[in-house]
Amino acid sequence: QVQLVESGGGLVQPGGSLRLSCAASGFTLDDNAIGWFRQAPGKEREGVSCISGNNSTTYYANSVKGRFTMSRDNAKNTVYLQINNLKPEDAAVYFCAADPSRLMFKLCVLLPREYHYWGQGTQVTVSS
């Protein structure tokens, strides 16, 4: 069974840090483009970061540049999102997504419709 499972969310004070994990089972993340998305209550799902299938391209939304870092560990079949200097506006459910298509082997895009596999999300709450 193909599955993505996010973990690492929680309650953090503004300025704090979290590392989110996205573990895959039933398939390998190698060669898959991976995206991290978030959705706050009443808002549309927003792309925050992605990495291409061959790891040559990593892209960050302007709102998170310099604070979010995405990485992957193929040996663990896991992708990570390091979040630093958390702001209240970062509070949301964070989702990881994967897509094996050749279209995103060298590039990636932050469009939810382009990703085939999705996790169920992990909640990030930012509050003092």
Q: What is the rounded distance between the termini?
A: 39 Å
Helical/strand content category: mainly beta
Rg computed from alpha carbons, rounded to a whole number of angstroms: 14 Å
SSE pattern? EEEEEEEEEEE
Low-confidence stretches: none
Strand content: over 45%
Count of beta strands: 11
Write the layout of secondary structure elements.
Elements: E1 3-7, E2 10-12, E3 18-25, E4 33-39, E5 46-51, E6 58-60, E7 68-73, E8 78-83, E9 92-99, E10 117-118, E11 122-126
Parallel strand pairs: 2-11
Antiparallel strand pairs: 1-3, 3-8, 4-5, 4-9, 5-6, 7-8, 9-10, 9-11
Question: What does it look like?
Answer:
The protein has 128 residues and is an all-beta fold. It contains no helices and 11 strands. The protein has strands at 3-7, 10-12, 18-25, 33-39, 46-51, 58-60, 68-73, 78-83, 92-99, 117-118, 122-126. Strands 2, 4, 5, 6, 9, 10 and 11 form a 7-stranded mixed sheet that branches. It is globular. It starts with a strand and ends with a strand. The model has no long low-confidence stretch (mean pLDDT 95).
